[in-house]
Records
---
Amino acid sequence: MKYSALLLSLLLAGCATQPTVKSWMDPKSSVTITAQTEPLVLVRAAPAPSMNERDYAQLTAIEVNRMGERKLYLVAILWNSGDLWSDKSGSSQSAFDQIDVNVGERTVALTPHTGEVSELGINQALPLPIPGSKHIYFPISRDDLRAISRSNRIELTARGVPEAPRRYEEWQDGRRSLNDFLGQLPELNQPQS
């Protein structure tokens, strides 16, 4: 009987879910960073160059807390199934100089942070999936993040190259992690950017 209880507890421990939100302190700037751990993943809608190669945009919400000054960002992580970052020309990154995230009845227009990432208080790469790929930080409001988390379907249009917009469609859901992330944010009396 005692072995049955031990086996049951081991099985239950193995079934425990991984945390959907993670926090850590940047060792250089001492800001606290909180991020969802299960991103929304979108795949480029246009036909891929080959069946084995697809372009992806992974969206992860983060909060940077610098001694109570809290800022939210939607981090786009771009990668390709053929090569994690094969965009030698920079065309994918420049396409993300402006994005529209369609969340049903509303479109969230975002432009990236243009300065150095260290200005945000982030001095080393975020410990998020797809290491070595390019991270693009978009300042975003809590209301816009809520709209994304409540949407039924997400589409993204990268409009940085006006003559060649890139459309991405939802491929993998990360709303549970995004909702958990939003639930961990403190309520503020004043609007948050």
---
Amino acid sequence: MGRWEPDAEGRMIRAAMDLFDERGFEQTTAGDIAERAGVTERTFFRHFADKREVLFDGSKTMECTAHDAILAAPAGHSPLDAALAGMVAAGELLEDRREHAVRRSRIVAANPSLQERELLKLAGVVEVTAEALRIRGVSEPSAALAGHSAVTVFQVAFTRWVSAQQPLALTDCIAENAAALRALK
């Protein structure tokens, strides 16, 4: 290894995305990512538990952001509106990372084990959302229903956002999907 360079994590994420695009997820190793990023494999594992986590590195940040936004939502908000406030806050984290999100989405869609991991991460967001609603005093089943509904709104909006030919604002997609959900009767 040569002289130390800053932003090892960012370099590893970029290297992983490039390698996943070039070779495929299954054909890329943590060692390949480390080598391309100019770090040791040990450094890679200090930042990521495994190569899958490169694609899911922002999950905890999104969960915490959604949780905090739900707790900060005005007291008069319905459970669904409070949960949606969390999804909008989480979406704001991604607004300036659309190109990365599009690439990541394509990589995840091409690999069944990553699709499964994505579903597990979304289930975690549902639980965090429902827990924040319970802290706000929302009882069951309303907390669970609002949590699942808000995360579904986010998931459908995210899919639309990464698939759009013309760049859209993710938060606008969330708002439009929330309105469509409310219109279902």
